[in-house]
Amino acid sequence: MPLKLLQMKNSMLYVMLLLITITSACNTRSYNTRQTRATSSKDLVAPPGMIYVPAGNVTMGTPGQNGDSTNMKKYRLSAFYMDKTSITNKQYRQFVYWVRDSIAITDYLNNKSYFQRMRTKDTSAKANINWDKVGDGRSIWRSKNYKIIDKLRPMYNQGDDNQSGNGELNKKILNFRYETSSADKSKSGYSVIKEVVNVWPDENVWDRDFPNSQNDLMVKSYFTNPSFDDYPVVGVTWKQARAFAAWRSKVWKAYNYKMKNPKLISLTMDLPTEAQRAYVSIPSVITNEVSIKDSVSKKKIKIKKVINPLQSGDSAFTYTMPVTYLPPNKFGLYNTVGNVSEWTLNTYTLSWEAFVHKINPVLLYDAKDSDPETLKRKVIAGSSWKDQATQNIPERQPEIQDEAKSYIGFRCVMPAPDFNPGKSNFKTINKNSK
DSSP states of 351-368 as a string? Predict the structure, then answer.
């Protein structure tokens, strides 16, 4: 499907995700991470930044009235790949810049040199962007060619919107279109849901979450300043997180198509389910067994508690910290407890276990903007930098899907085949995504 401009009253520009389809994926911008350690076996290689999580069981449920575990159920999870860390500011900026550059090339520059050569005589077909030519976008945005500068001028804030006086990019036009499928028993088994999402994170969450507090540095610098490159991205809604996963899936599939490596698996990435997130939430520091309460039902259950280093008095960080600052857990995952809470795929309800299967459970409802807030609630997992020093592991919290917070980030997962790692056929390699 080609990229096209959707005309709307507010002149907002939408970018079609399917620009980088598998059939035209010989050229695409890379998804880069810093010295990614990818898990490999004889038969498969993990996507950059992800590691293999073997199949296993996880016990979840609503505690009984007396705080016992009679209502707890065991669920079986297939193997999957998961990001070692929360998505960082630097990684999320790659997504934002891809959207920015796509809009600039297709809707403003209209320069044939930025597009792939057509291999068809069909005059109605549109060429796709040649990302090898575009590179990281510097040739566009740092160009001194007055023709390029003049064509891109409408992409910047004008008049009163240009508050800094330095020619800021109009963030309102950075909109991204993607598609997801959802189960639909009334039709053919599933339906396609089309979403249009503005991709720029909400930088004002620091002031909104903590009024009457000095947060100017975080508001103005946290997402854009390279000093915070390796910190978790925040201010991202549930739909923005899913949009990132959809974009990254296409980039990964395009890379696989280009490499033609049978060890690479091209499946769709998404947010982890609540069960997947609970399965891997093994902290680095655990203390004695305690009684806690569910955040909504207030029922108690015996579990262990974890020390949140950001609030224990031993941390050098007031807010978030670099995603690999603390050691990983037994799965090799960083900050599954602490730093930032993370979006999951699941819809939040107290009776969720009555609706899910015992194998790979998930309860997902794609709420519309017009739906009431009760239908928009999603599960966030893990404690964050703002929580108390001793934060309980299984406590699940609801959050409205279109609300952005300074303490909520996300990471992605991708399905993987089950196999026995074993020392003979399972190893860790250093890999940069190119």
Answer: TGGGTS-SBS--------
DSSP state of 315: -
Q: How far apart are the first and last CA of the chain?
A: 24
State pLDDT tens for residues 196-241. Answer: 999 999 999 999 999 999 999 999 999 999 999 999 999 999 999 9
- pTM equals 0.80
pLDDT of residue 285 exceeding 70, the answer is no
> Cα(379)–Cα(251) distance, rounded to whole angstroms?
27
Paired tokens of 140: 């566009």
Whether the CB-CB separation of 102 and 129 falls below 8 Å is answered with yes
Domain definitions of the chain by residue range? 14-419
- Give CA–CA dist 111/128, Å, rounded: 12
β-bridge partners, 105:
none
Bridging pattern class, strands 189-198 and 175-184: antiparallel
User: In the prediction, which pLDDT does 7 show?
Assistant: 40
Beta partners for residue 175, in sequence order:
14, 198
Residue 43's CB is within 10 A of a number of other CB atoms, namely 11
pLDDT in tens, 348-366: 998 888 889 999 999 999 8
| Coil, helix or strand at residue 134 | helix
Q: Which fold has domain 14-419?
A: paralog of FGE (formylglycine-generating enzyme) (3.90.1580)
Full DSSP string of 166-207 = S--B-GGG-EEEEEEEEEETTTTEEEEEEEEEE-S--TTHHH
Give residue for tokens 């993990």: 46
Tell me how far apart the alpha carbons of residues 284 and 330 are, in angstroms, rounded to a whole number. 8
Alpha-carbon gap, residue 23 to 13, rounded angstroms: 25
Report whether 431 contacts 263 (CB < 8 A): no
Among residues 222, 240, 205, the alpha carbon closest in space to that of 321 is found at 222
> Which residues are registered as beta bridge partners of 88?
232
Q: How far apart are CA 347 and CA 376, in angstroms?
A: 7
